[in-house]
Specification:
Helix content: 25-40%
Oligomer: single chain
Number of helices: 3
Structural class: alpha+beta
Number of strands: 4
Largest sheet: 4 strands, antiparallel
Shape: globular
């Protein structure tokens, strides 16, 4: 099953992000086989990271929640909120 995980940063959390970025990236690299896409959410001007977005393969909602909770950014308190929802990929269409 696919799940979308949207995490929104607390205001002024850039200073929390910086020291935790290497651990965050290592966590993502260790999970790369289950990640369809991932990346930062950006401010309107594109200058600041204001959250994270993941689409992952997970066995259950609990598994997706566990993935999200294991992110070093989540453990460090970077995020103000987190949304986890089932997701169905429609595009791009698989080509054979």
């Amino acid at each position: 099953m696919l799940y979308m995980i949207q995490c929104v940063d607390k205001p002024n959390s850039a200073e929390l992000r910086k020291p935790n970025r290497p651990a965050h990236l290592a966590y993502i690299r260790a999970q790369v086989a289950r990640i369809l896409t991932a990346g930062p959410l950006l401010s309107e001007d594109g200058e600041r990271m204001i959250g994270s977005l993941f689409v992952i393969e997970a066995a259950s909602r609990a598994d997706a929640e566990e993935f999200a909770a294991g992110d070093p950014y989540a453990k460090a308190g970077v995020f103000e909120s987190r949304t986890v929802r089932r997701y169905r990929q429609v595009f791009p269409v698989e080509r054979t």
